[in-house]
Amino acid sequence: METRVIPVDREHLQENDFAEAAKLLREGELVAFPTETVYGLGGDALDPDASRKIYAAKGRPSDNPLIVHIADVNALTELAQEVPEKAWELAERFWPGPMTMILRKKAIVPDATTGGLDTVAIRMPSDPVAAMLIRESGVYIAAPSANASGRPSPTTADHVYEDLNGRIPMIIDGGSVVIGLESTIVDLTGETPMVLRPGYITIEQLREVLPDVAYDPAVIKRVKDETIVAKAPGMRYRHYAPKGELTIFEGDLDRVTARVQAEAEAKAAMGFSVAVLASEETKDRYHGLTVRSVGGRDEEASVAAHLFATLREFDRMGAEYIFGECFPEEGVGQAVMNRLMKAAGYRIVKV
Ligand code: TXA
Ligand code: MG
Q: In this predicted structure, what is the pLDDT of residue 214?
């Protein structure tokens, strides 16, 4: 299959920019498109065959449910069996935006889309390209991140092309995404609202609307512990991971950088290809090594925006060992460290 890449200018979207993409979606085909978080691989959420195509294109296990993207809050009542007051309050405050809710599904949402669960994940994205595509197509768009399963999520159309070229008919290229990490997921199906995946919307922000919201234990774990099973099936898989072995170092920054330098040098001396994941403040402290900065240590948003692209760059370089610093867990820093720890398979060294 030939994959066409269609550039759009998100500042000046035209009515007919999405005519072909919308038609493909209505016909049950797949289209990758930008959202404010990461690129999504979209298909008609109510068409089980379209969902099956999504799993096939990504090489994703079919028990890992998809997020259904909507362009109008009223879609909640069409997709969810009961919409609790808490859901309307969250929607009012955070939609459109990088927040996904889990609710009990109605029968029109096929099992193929929810991985057989009786719940459905719903999000109303704020990116104008995503919003317009949903409106133009007239379908709800099921969209996981548009990476091949297991790889870091795509933050540019090039990343999508790298993973899915030849597997899908179209990629809409709207440039780099703004946020760079996937949405915050809140499960509203239990007694207590639970954050299943941290994202740009922090738990502190959620608490302003839902004071009792809590983290799923799997979100805050810092060790590989098989007894803590994530409630979001997708958070159980090895994920976001570069091909090389990533280890992250935590503690006093001077000691961290000294240790990273020593460990990286030792592997390089053995002939391995080595890379360092650093910050603006530390990048010049390393010598004789391949170093990439993901941003300033107090600029969590910058770190979030550059993390996945940097992990992909390490893959392209063929890095076999990657040594990285921990980042402050302020604001979106929580989500950054969640992804980084998963990418590292919880190989965290305290120094
Ligand atoms: O920002 C995002 O959320 C992006 C963009 C494209 O919207 N999408 C995204 O989708 O990250 P995906 O499929 O890569 O991640 C969806 C996560 C998975 O961990 C999945 O297990 C979880 O959401 N999920 C989906 N439906 C669920 C459900 N009914 N119950 C629990 N977890 C669910
Ligand atoms: Mg994903």
A: 97
pLDDT tens for each residue of 63-87: 899 999 999 999 999 999 989 999 9
Cβ neighbours of 351 (radius 10 Å): 16
Ligand 1 site, residue 38, Cβ cutoff 6 A: yes
CA-to-CA dists, residue 278 to 203, 244, 257, 321, 337, angstroms: 26, 16, 9, 14, 14
Q: Whose CA is nearest to atom 6 of ligand 1?
A: 40
Question: Distance between CA atoms of 1 and 110, rounded to whole angstroms?
Answer: 26
Q: Atom 18 of ligand 1 has which residue's CA nearest to it?
A: 234
The ligand placed nearest to the CA atom of residue 163 is 2
Q: Tell if the pTM clears 0.90, that is, is over it.
A: yes
Domain with 258 in it:
245-350
**Residue pLDDT, tens place only, 106-120:** 999 999 999 999 999
Residue 127 belongs to domain with CATH number: 3.90.870.10
Considering the domain boundaries, does residue 228 fall inside one? no
Q: Is residue 234 domain-resident?
A: no
CATH number at residue 297: 3.40.50.11030
